[in-house]
Design brief:
The chain has about 400 residues and is of the alpha+beta class. The protein folds into 2 domains: about 130 residues, no CATH class; about 200 residues, Intergrase catalytic core (hpI Integrase, Chain A). Helix content is about 40%, strand content about 10%. It contains 14 helices and 7 strands. α1 runs antiparallel to α2 and α3 runs antiparallel to α4. The protein is elongated and about 80 Å long. The structure holds zinc ion (ZN). It holds the Pfam family Phage_int_SAM_1. Keywords: DNA integration, DNA recombination, DNA-binding. Belongs to the 'phage' integrase family. InterPro entries: CB, DNA_brk_join_enz, Integrase-like_cat_sf, Integrase_catalytic, Integrase_recombinase_N, Integrase_SAM-like_N, Tyrosine_recombinase_XerCD.
């Protein structure tokens, strides 16, 4: 049992004067090594609760960087409490107010810089890191009987995720989310340039993922739409009349459905998107893998687990597809999230001179003002758009 320099908070701590400034401070534990505590900036007196919590984090094998970040966030919180004359044991109302004030408090300009600068503010992400650290502190405080279970429970909202089993909607996992959180503003979507898209396609490790990435990057379908595709939605023929479809040339149908992998097509209006011969070939290569690897296959979904050890043959999950994007793009020295492919497709069409109405039709965007022109996008227009910007690396080698 490592001996600690930090005493567990006693129940009889002295009345703390208001307006103390708390800082994160590097400490060395006798047995536990370097860590962080929260101390008074002038007297170096330990903040007992915050420091005891940080010591607990050290015991639960958190990295020094994590502990330092928690120390800084807790120090800021306890410093703010003083002048506000609030009691931290009140829980959520106090923490919510702290986070709100943090949002409107400008960051200090670098010292020695007299020049006027536009004030800078913390990002939503940073504020959520504060909220997360403080929420975790309260969870520990409840376990240590410093606040009531009821106070701690206020930090989490509970909801039940529903999922489909066959055609029946059933309650599933209980999800908990932090009650104190800040809406993060999304940055403008980033684009993949031509080389980026080529490198991503080359970095993908198997036929299924190569088909998925090529399909997304060439057609601009959302990842949820791609994962929600069923084999019956793929009309990869020159003539689909035999399957009751009059659209000319190979194409896919994007329809709104509730799918087993929780992929939900976002468009409420179904659309038809042409695909290139190269993408069709990638599909057939994937299909060969699927036939090889699955002894029995009755899954109607296009994208299924094939290369993993477990859940083989089941619908590919959204979270696993997203991980695949990060893994593959990481190998190519990029960081690509799935939505970038859609934005990239749209931008490439625009740059290649594809009319706005065709871009809208391809993306499935419904805009009231464009409903009339939308009708005039012919199959041929859409096909030309897709062919004009297709990738060479999506062609099988
Ligand atoms: Zn069709």
């Amino acid at each position: 049992m490592p001996q600690s320099l930090i005493p567990f908070p006693s129940t009889t701590h002295p009345i703390v004067p208001i307006s103390r400034r708390w800082i994160a401070f590097s400490v060395i534990h006798k047995a536990g090594g370097p860590s962080w505590a929260v101390v008074d900036s002038s007297t170096y007196e330990l903040h007992s609760e915050a420091s005891a919590y940080l010591h607990y984090l050290l015991g639960s094998a958190r990295s020094a960087n994590t502990i330092r970040a928690y120390a800084q966030r807790l120090a800021a919180f306890f410093t703010w409490l003083g002048p506000a004359r609030l009691d931290w044991t009140d829980g959520v109302p106090v923490v919510s107010r702290f986070i709100r004030e943090l949002a409107v408090t400008a960051l200090n300009a670098p010292e020695g810089n007299a020049e006027y600068r536009e004030p800078r503010y913390r990002s939503g992400k940073t504020m959520n890191q504060y909220a997360a650290a403080i929420t975790q502190f309260y969870m520990w405080a409840a376990r240590s009987d410093l606040v009531s279970e009821k106070t701690a429970a206020g930090f989490y909202e509970t909801r039940i995720a529903y999922g489909y089993s066959g055609d029946r909607l059933l309650p599933g996992q209980v999800l908990r989310s932090r009650a104190v959180r800040v809406k993060e503003i999304e940055e403008a979507p980033k684009l993949l340039n031509e080389t980026g898209a080529e490198s991503l396609l080359e970095a993908v490790s198997n036929h299924r993922d190569r088909f998925l990435v090529a399909l997304m990057v060439e057609t601009g379908v959302r990842i949820g739409e791609a994962l929600g595709l069923r084999t019956e939605d793929l009309h990869l023929f020159h003539d689909s009349r035999a399957v009751g479809c009059v659209s000319v040339g190979p194409h896919i149908h994007v329809r709104r459905r509730q799918n087993p992998n929780a992929a939900l097509s976002k468009s409420s209006n179904p659309r038809t998107v042409p695909v290139t011969e190269a993408v069709c070939t990638l599909y057939y290569l994937y299909l060969e893998d699927r036939i090889d690897r699955l002894a029995q296959d009755s899954n109607p979904m296009v994208f299924v687990n094939l290369y993993s050890r477990s859940h083989v043959g089941e619908a590919l999950k959204y979270s696993n597809a997203v991980k695949m994007f990060y893994r593959s793009s990481g190998r190519a020295g990029l960081r690509v999230n799935p939505h970038m492919t859609r934005h990239t497709a749209a931008t490439r069409w625009k740059r290649a001179g594809v009319p706005t109405r065709d871009v809208q039709a391809l993306l499935g965007h419904r805009s009231p003002s464009s409903q009339l022109v939308y009708e005039h996008s012919s199959d041929q227009d859409l096909r030309e758009a897709i062919e004009r910007v297709r990738f060479r690396s999506s062609e099988p080698t």
